[in-house]
Write a structure and sequence with these properties.
Strand content: 25-35%
Shape: globular
Largest sheet: 3 strands, antiparallel
Order of helices and strands: EEHHE
Number of helices: 2
Radius of gyration: 12 Å
Helix content: 25-40%
Strand order of the largest sheet: 2-1-3
Number of domains: 1
Structural class: alpha+beta
Length: about 55
C-alpha cells in the first residue's frame, strides 16, 4: 500500500441541524460540513445516515 487516503466519517441527522464528527472533535470544522450534509440527505429516507466526506 503506497497510497494513503484520508477519510472522515460524519454522523448526520435528517433534520440537518446536528452534525457529529466521528473522528474529530472540532465542532467548528464539523459545522462547515453541515451544508454538504443537508444536500446529501435530500435523497435519504432513513432517520440518520453515515456520510463519507473527503
Amino acid at each position: 500500500m503506497g497510497k494513503s487516503i484520508r477519510i472522515r466519517l460524519y454522523f448526520c441527522k435528517v433534520n440537518g441541524k446536528t452534525l457529529y464528527s466521528l473522528l474529530t472533535g472540532s465542532q467548528e470544522f464539523v459545522n462547515r460540513k453541515l451544508t454538504s450534509c443537508r444536500q446529501a440527505l435530500n435523497f435519504l429516507l432513513t432517520e440518520n445516515a453515515l456520510l463519507v466526506i473527503f
